[in-house]
Amino acid sequence: MDDPYEDRSMPADTGNGNYDADDLVDLENMKPPQVDYYAVLNLSKAASEDDIKDSYKRLSRIFHPDKHSDPALKEAAETKFHIINKAFEVLTNPQLRTAYDEYGEEGLNTKWEVGHRVKTPQELREEYSRLAREKREMELESLVRNKNDITINVDATRVFKNQEVMSPFGGTAFARKSRGSILDPLKRAEIMQLYMKNSFETQFGPRTQFIVGGQMTSRSGMGGGNVVGTIRHTFSDKLNVELGSSLLKPRVGVLKATYSIDPLTFITGTAQVRNFKGPAPLVMTFGRRITKGATGYMTYRTGEWAIGSWGPVFERRRDFSSMALGVSSQDENRAYQVEVQTGLMQSHLSLDHTWTLDSATKVRVGGSLSTTAGINASIGGDRKITEHTKVGLAVEVGLSGGVAFNIKVKRLGQSVTIPIVLAAEFNPKLAFWATVVPICAVTALDIGYVKPKRRKERAEKIQELRAVHADFIANQKKEAQEAVDLLRESTDRKTRQEQEKDGLVILEATYGNLNAAPELGLVADVTIAVQALVNNSQLTMPGGHSKNHILGFYDPCLGEKKQLRIKYEFQRRLHQVIVADQASVAAPVRSHLLAQ
């Protein structure tokens, strides 16, 4: 007996539609969605021209105005057929389709000078990207970007030590614990060093940037600073060069160039000139992508060197040569780097791994073994607490370097870093509590304050969005109902045909925020719209776009994550599937069967 489910499933990307309630939609920049022509025709972006024509013919049989005699339905059909016809025109025109795929409606409304129309879609796509990039670069030409970094090094080693006082009998003795404030030990912390760096970047044409930066260091009441100017120019897609120099003494010049040998291979060279008493120290890096996400590299540093008598003798050199080999990789879920370096004065092995837990949280673990610093380990993470603000915490432990706790806050190009030295020597108890206490504190703060505050702000923003776009939402609901009215007669006929052969019958389909209370009205009934997509006992809904663009659908919960739940009957057996908004749907599938 033939399997009725055979060859009816789509690629396994449907999932169950679950998501984190705190995974925020970008509410700040949300606008009413534009029509998605692929969703209108119920097609994927990989659809062939034959697929487009078949879908167009199928919808035309239902939505063509001549198919309806009722004046109200005829008027509604004219509106829907205009959208269907527009979708067909765009997706069957290679040039328009490429522009639409890259930039949506904006691509159709922009005049592009892309040469002769016989170019392949890939060539058109590359040329559209180039023109759009140049357009953005010209818009940014006069924009000045500012970056500011502040580092405050704190010595807190005395906070965790008992105070020693001079004994009248000679030597030292530990002071008795006083009944002072619990914050008194914090007064023993000292700021060791303050470092500030600020830079401004502006465009000088589409290929040239000019950066002016200043830096200042203060330590124990003494310090210094300098101003650095840098010009960065892109000569071609393969070569870019940076030339920089400090404007005050001590003067230092830097020349850096990067050349892409091919799309997978690059070479970078840096020369730093402090004086002309010897050749400039060089740093050369050769890198190549070795897998889809990983890049291998080799870096050689000359250190201070000499050509004959020109340059410092070996005994007076402060920087020595080294060679490093490494591999780095980064994708949406994780990033890692492994490096081995060998040199005349220092060699090391370092490992670093970062995991992305969710869209707002990352955790990092690192370690190194060095001939000069011994064994070091670190663990930390950062979390996005607002749209533009990120906070990071880390603990660093060294067998010969003590225990340090780092705090970092970043917002819109501005960052403040506070490394706090807790112990000058290795202290396992302090290292343990320096790790556990911040994790517990951050977790409590996140659960007790950040998430509730975020939910409250999100709810207020959603209400504001819905009030602003109330007319749009009402119009979308009205148009969806008109589409359902147009689909009703043909869908009833299709349902009876499926029932007669024990085929695929949609019992109920709901779309929106399925976790919301029914009385809030954040769910739309799309049963007829889904049944209309059934053909020969098979339902196919490609993914990659929001389902609210499908004829008969609308967005009942603007600003919130949406899901689609379908209850259907096949072979007189009950099935159910829940998918995320942009996931594909295929039915019937055996895994959708409900226990009976």
Considering the chains and any ligands shown, give keywords for the structure.
17-stranded mixed β-barrel, alpha+beta, 36% strand, four-stranded antiparallel beta sheet, 596 residues, 9 helices, elongated
Description:
- Helices cover 25% and strands 36% of the residues.
- With 596 residues, the protein is α+β, with helices and mostly antiparallel strands.
- The strands form 4 sheets. It has a 17-stranded mixed beta barrel. A 4-stranded antiparallel sheet has the order 21-20-24-25. It has a 3-stranded antiparallel sheet with strand order 22-23-26, with no helix packed on it.
- Helix 3 (71-91) packs across helix 8.
- The longest helix has 41 residues, at 428-468.
List the helices and strands and how they pair.
Layout: H1 37-40, H2 49-63, H3 71-91, H4 94-103, H5 105-109, H6 121-139, E1 145-155, E2 164-166, E3 172-174, E4 190-203, E5 208-219, E6 222-234, E7 239-246, E8 253-262, E9 265-273, E10 282-289, E11 294-301, E12 322-330, E13 334-343, E14 348-358, E15 361-370, E16 374-384, E17 389-398, E18 402-411, E19 414-423, H7 428-468, H8 470-500, E20 505-512, E21 523-525, H9 527-531, E22 534-535, E23 538-541, E24 563-570, E25 573-580, E26 585-587
Parallel strand pairs: 1-19
Antiparallel strand pairs: 1-4, 2-3, 4-5, 5-6, 6-7, 7-8, 8-9, 9-10, 10-11, 11-12, 12-13, 13-14, 14-15, 15-16, 16-17, 17-18, 18-19, 20-21, 20-24, 22-23, 23-26, 24-25
What's the short version?
This is J domain-containing protein. This protein is α+β, with helices and mostly antiparallel strands and 596 residues long.
